[in-house]
Write a structure and sequence with these properties.
This is Nucleoside-diphosphate-sugar epimerase. The protein is α/β, with parallel strands linked by helices. It contains 14 helices and eleven strands. The protein folds into two domains: 4-168, 3-Layer(aba) Sandwich (Rossmann fold), CATH 3.40.50; 172-214 and 246-319 and 333-350, Rossmann fold.
């Protein structure tokens, strides 16, 4: 029988990759979102305010699936509000889908803030030593990821379905209007530098420039999510998810610069956040979009300066361990440089950046 999936957040960077992957593997895919993004062709979309119990119930009242994938979040002003809003989103969906999910599966995507702490307290506590491993557990701080997990665990126990939690590092993937999208942000930044002659300056910390790190291709995460939903060895487990290679930004920055035909500026160890330096970028991007007939002239629909600054400005090394997934049978690998280049090529093909 054809497998059936519900993707919550189907038009985001994770949801887009997961939709494309499941459709290629002959799943029937229903998507649920707030209706702000462009869904993948072939996905049966439902629209609702995910924080509204009644709207979610109305949107999903006739949906019957084998697996639910959570790939959505709503950024709030404080972590207390993040907990209230994002926890409710998980409960609202599972309260509706739970009865039909008996003997099915629900997968929740969170991330490495599980170990680093939320943005309000990012890396300020006693961060576990790298590489991060699943058994290191939770930090003693408020974190909406923990609330989402607890809502998932409670619903799984109540309705009788299995669960998995997936913790990717920074995700590389195609999506527009996404709140956390370093790949598209760097593509836009490099394009601005190329067209204006500005130096391609690394905005982050010396620790990130010199230390080892890893990332997660959204396509690899999609494969990981399907694996967890269909493998007996992955049931009721939490997993880190990374590409499988490591690199230093001092190398990757020059590789990205080479791709765009620009020169990487020497790094002097000083933090130069993009959010503060790109104040005039909206006007510049609109001119570039007009010149090259690009699809999206509004830079705010492409970049997330703040999120890229947060990731590249970390004061600690961030590397994840994938042993748990490997031992359970997930052996996929993705070159991070190739992930960036594949994304840049798609952005050109879709006329999001100049070709």
């Amino acid at each position: 029988m054809q497998k059936r999936a519900l993707i919550v957040g189907a038009s985001g960077v994770i949801g887009t990759a997961l939709s494309e992957h499941l459709l290629s593997d002959d799943w029937k895919v229903t998507g649920l979102s707030r209706g702000r993004g462009t869904p993948t062709a072939g996905v049966h979309m439902r629209t609702a305010d995910l924080t509204s119990r009644d709207e979610v119930a109305s949107a999903l009242n006739d949906v019957d699936v084998d697996a639910v994938f959570f790939a959505a979040w709503a950024r709030q002003a404080t972590e207390k509000e993040n907990i209230r809003v994002n926890g409710a989103m998980v409960s609202n969906v599972l309260n509706v889908m739970g009865p039909s999910l008996q003997n099915g599966h629900a997968a929740l995507v969170t991330g490495l803030k599980h170990y680093l702490g939320p943005f309000e307290a990012y890396g300020t506590g006693a961060v576990p030593k790298t590489p991060f491993r699943e058994e290191q557990g939770r930090q003693p701080v408020e974190n909406f990821y923990y609330e989402q997990e607890d809502r998932l665990f409670e619903a799984a126990s109540r309705f009788g379905f299995t669960w998995s939690v997936h913790r990717p590092h920074t995700i590389i993937g195609y999506a527009l209007g996404n709140a956390m999208n370093m790949g598209v942000t760097l593509a836009v930044y490099a394009t601005l530098c190329k067209q204006s002659g500005q130096p391609f300056v690394f905005p982050g910390s010396a620790t990130q420039w010199n230390g080892l790190t890893d990332m997660t291709d959204a396509r690899l995460l999609a494969r990981h999510l399907e694996w967890a939903a269909t493998s007996d060895k992955s049931r009721n487990e939490d997993f880190n998810v990374a590409n499988g290679d490591v690199f230093r930004w001092q190398w990757m920055w020059s590789q990205i610069a080479n791709y765009f035909g620009i020169e990487a500026a020497p790094f002097d160890g000083v933090l130069r956040p993009l959010e503060h330096r790109m104040q005039d970028s909206a006007r510049q991007w609109q001119a570039i979009a007009t010149q090259f007939e690009l699809k999206e002239p509004a830079i705010e629909n492409l970049v997330s300066w703040w999120h890229t600054d947060a990731d590249l400005g970390r004061p600690m090394e961030v590397v994840t361990d994938m042993s748990k997934s490997r031992k359970a049978g997930f052996l996929a690998y993705q070159s991070t440089l190739d992930a960036f280049i594949d994304l840049f090529e798609r952005l050109k093909a879709e006329r999001i950046i100049p070709g």
